[in-house]
């Protein structure tokens, strides 16, 4: 078990004929992901790495039975790509594209309300269930199959967290990067809920950053609904106010969205908060030891 | 992207918003004869709080105007928003002075919560919205507007009522809001503000000040907006970095940072300060950094005379550490790096990357992990002298 994806997930790559799309299709295939089709308008009938390309997502879905898509199209076409995927009945849409205008995403998010599609991203590294399926751009080889779920707004910090856990021989159930944009699909609260329900996941690492109030809302949710141990880290403690720190969503404005405020809310919720980024693995280990489940979290251990 | 008040007013005018006539003056311009007095002379810098800093003045004659302009041009205005360095005045906007009865705040923002736009309004005009929010939050009126139905007359009616405006101002307010709304959506704004929006003694609405910020992600779709950028207002290094596709923000410390990924770049800064050092910058070379981009990043760091040590923190995912190492070594060789460079490489081909650095013979100091790298950087780049 895992969340959102597993070894049976069939994936369509939107924008498969572009440079990024081509490269990451190969990487995902190497990892064992079941990429079954690609889509690029006007390139239907061709193929990439042996994967058939269709003009539309709906045709690709009809021909292959895929219910998941990953998007590698330029920012100006990305909102369209998400909407097309949703209308083609994709259950899960992973949007890697960085630089989508905020107003485009506001319209997309509104449209997805009440629909069955779950959107991950945009501006994210994607999602991986180690040993089963990778949808996105993360380096798969750093992962170990296991019991810890990871949710993060940052790509490279996700890798950092995975690496720190793997070095401690603590495996991961699923790792999700929810993206660095202010308007995105899957949020911390929804991901926490999925990890709490997933019997395979025993503990959770959550990585937030300055800007917005999602971490505060997650803290509230952790306090009331999460029984599994949570380790958290918030980056941007030293970021100056009013400056956008690389991610469109990472900005402290009007004194709101500070790292201190978020770390405090998470501590209050019962999560173990790492002060520095290289303490993420250690903080999680301590939390699962405290819960008496450390041995069960180790790579290769079977459930007792 | 930020623009000046005069540019915001010009844009609003294009969308049918009745902005007051203005005359823009640059340093070399001679003052035109047809100016009516009294008038208000306003320094054009990207900052609020210009009035308090002496950048907005009422002048009653051509002589007073000449004197004020002479004082303002080239002067450095320090406001609450500019930081201690302040901003140099290169342009002045002259607008007619009005007899004002009351000042309001009117703002438009994307509404992340409800999925549309949000009108913010307050009868406390002239103050910054953050200040109103802090001191008198009850006096801020919020009106979400769904993008499905757009701005409707009733929105305007509710708003004027909440602000305690006379209903005779409804038509003027509707024209202003409709224009702002259309501008916001068509040009991908991230903020549009009229503050103060004034009511004159003879019952007219006067757009006293206007501020517009564009969504950086939206700018690609509006190339015409690029001409509105004022290079004088931008940090030279930030501008250079943006052109190279790098995310760079100038900070006040002595440790130059080069990191891949925004989250890791922020975390690296946190790490440095955790060990008592201060970063000179935030720099994210991006997930797909190439040798060329790494070299460009190095150039920018080295051009910063405050930088005493460079800390490179790369977690190679898609970007391979051996390629990153080659980029670093190439830059070190070509640019003749005289300051210590601490490098932490982890992830894809990290072993190979570290070997290349070790065997290069260049003064690159490898660090086995993030904390070791940060400690070393603080050690070499400490601010004791």
Structure commentary:
The complex is a heterodimer of chains A (304) and B (385). Chain A is of the alpha/beta class and 304 residues long. Chain A folds into two domains: 10-120, Rossmann fold (3-Layer(aba) Sandwich); 139-303, Succinyl-CoA synthetase domains (Rossmann fold), CATH 3.40.50.261. In chain A, 35% of the residues lie in helices and 21% in strands. Chain A contains ten helices and 14 strands. A seven-stranded mixed β-sheet of chain A has the order 3-4-2-1-5-6-7, sandwiched between helices. In chain A, strands 9-8-11-10-12-13-14 form a seven-stranded mixed β-sheet, sandwiched between helices. Chain A starts with 9 loop residues before the first strand and ends in a 7-residue tail after the last helix. In chain A, 61% of the residues are buried. Chain B has helices spanning 5-14, 62-72, 129-135, 153-162, 170-186, 236-243, 262-274, 291-302, 321-335, 350-359, 370-381, and strands spanning 23-26, 39-43, 56-59, 76-77, 87-88, 91-96, 100-111, 116-122, 140-146, 189-200, 205-207, 210-214, 247-250, 255-259, 281-284, 309-316, 341-347, 364-366. Chain B has three domains: 21-96, Dna Ligase, domain 1, CATH 3.30.1490; 100-221, 2-Layer Sandwich (D-amino Acid Aminotransferase, Chain A, domain 1); 236-381, Rossmann fold (3-Layer(aba) Sandwich). In chain B, strands 7, 8, 9, 10, 11 and 12 form a six-stranded antiparallel β-sheet that branches. In chain B, strands 1-6-2-3 form a four-stranded antiparallel β-sheet, with helices on one face. Helix content of chain B is 32%, strand content 26%. The radius of gyration of chain B is 25 Å and the shape is elongated. Chain B is built from eleven helices and 18 strands.
């Amino acid at each position: 078990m895992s969340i959102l994806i597993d070894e049976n997930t069939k994936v369509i790559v939107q924008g498969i004929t572009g440079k990024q799309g081509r490269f990451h299709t190969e990487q995902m295939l190497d990892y064992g992901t079941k990429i079954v089709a690609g889509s690029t308008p006007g390139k239907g009938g061709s193929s990439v790495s042996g994967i058939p390309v269709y003009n539309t997502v709906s045709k690709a879905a009809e021909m292959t039975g895929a219910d998941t898509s990953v998007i590698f199209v330029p920012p100006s076409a990305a909102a369209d790509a998400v909407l097309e995927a949703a209308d083609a009945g994709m259950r899960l849409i992973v949007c890697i594209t960085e630089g989508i205008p905020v107003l485009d995403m506001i319209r997309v998010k509104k449209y997805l309300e009440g629909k069955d599609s779950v959107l991950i991203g945009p501006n994210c590294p994607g999602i991986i269930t180690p040993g089963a399926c990778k949808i996105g751009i993360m380096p798969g080889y750093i992962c170990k199959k296991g019991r810890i779920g990871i949710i993060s707004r940052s790509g490279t910090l996700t890798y950092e967290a995975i690496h720190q856990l793997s070095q401690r021989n603590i495996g991961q159930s699923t790792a999700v990067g929810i993206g660095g944009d202010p308007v995105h699909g899957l949020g911390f609260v929804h991901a926490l809920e999925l990890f709490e329900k997933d019997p395979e996941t025993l503990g959770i690492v959550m990585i937030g950053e300055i800007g917005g109030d999602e971490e505060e809302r997650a803290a509230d949710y952790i306090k009331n609904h999460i029984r599994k141990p949570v380790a958290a880290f918030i980056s941007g403690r030293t970021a100056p106010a009013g400056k956008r720190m690389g991610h469109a969503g990472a900005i402290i404005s009007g004194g709101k969205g500070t790292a201190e405020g978020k770390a405090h809310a998470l501590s209050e919720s019962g999560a173990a908060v790492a002060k520095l980024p290289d303490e993420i693995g250690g903080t999680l280990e301590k939390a699962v030891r405290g819960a008496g489940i450390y041995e069960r979290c180790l790579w290769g251990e079977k459930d007792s | 992207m930020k623009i000046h008040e005069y540019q915001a007013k010009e844009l609003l005018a294009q969308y049918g918003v009745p902005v007051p006539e203005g005359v823009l003056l640059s340093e070399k311009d001679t003052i035109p004869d047809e100016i009516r007095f009294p008038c208000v002379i306003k320094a054009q810098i990207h900052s609020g709080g210009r009035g308090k800093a002496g950048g907005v003045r009422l002048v009653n004659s051509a002589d007073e105007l000449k004197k004020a302009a002479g004082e303002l041009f080239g002067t450095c205005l320090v406001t609450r928003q500019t930081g201690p360095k302040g901003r140099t005045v290169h342009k002045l906007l002259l607008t007619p002075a009005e007899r004002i009865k009351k000042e309001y705040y009117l703002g438009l923002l994307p509404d992340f919560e409800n999925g549309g736009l949000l009108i913010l309004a307050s009868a406390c005009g002239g103050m910054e919205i953050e200040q109103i929010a802090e001191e008198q939050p009850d006096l801020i009126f919020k009106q979400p507007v769904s993008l499905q139905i757009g701005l409707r007359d009733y929105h305007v009616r509710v708003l004027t009522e909440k602000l305690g405006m006379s209903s005779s101002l409804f038509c003027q307010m509707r024209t202003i809001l409709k224009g702002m709304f259309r501008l916001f959506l068509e040009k991908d704004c991230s903020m549009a503000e009229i503050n103060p929006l004034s009511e004159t003694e003879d019952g007219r609405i006067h757009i006293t000040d206007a501020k517009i910020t564009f969504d950086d992600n939206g700018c690609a779709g509006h190339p015409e907006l690029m001409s509105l950028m004022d290079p004088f207002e931008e940090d030279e290094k930030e501008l250079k970095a943006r052109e190279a596709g790098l995310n760079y923000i100038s900070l006040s410390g002595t440790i130059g940072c080069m990191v891949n990924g925004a989250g890791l770049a922020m975390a690296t800064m946190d790490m440095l300060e955790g060990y008592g050092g201060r970063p000179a910058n935030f720099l994210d070379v991006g997930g797909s950094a190439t040798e060329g981009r790494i070299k460009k990043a190095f150039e920018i760091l080295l051009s910063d005379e405050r930088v005493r040590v460079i800390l490179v923190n790369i977690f190679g995912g898609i970007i391979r550490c051996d390629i990153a190492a080659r980029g670093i070594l190439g830059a070190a060789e070509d640019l003749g790096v005289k300051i210590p460079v601490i490098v932490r490489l982890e992830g894809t081909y990290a072993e190979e990357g570290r070997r290349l650095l070790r065997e290069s013979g260049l003064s690159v100091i490898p660090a086995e992990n993030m904390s070791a790298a940060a400690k070393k950087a603080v050690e070499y780049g400490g601010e004791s002298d």
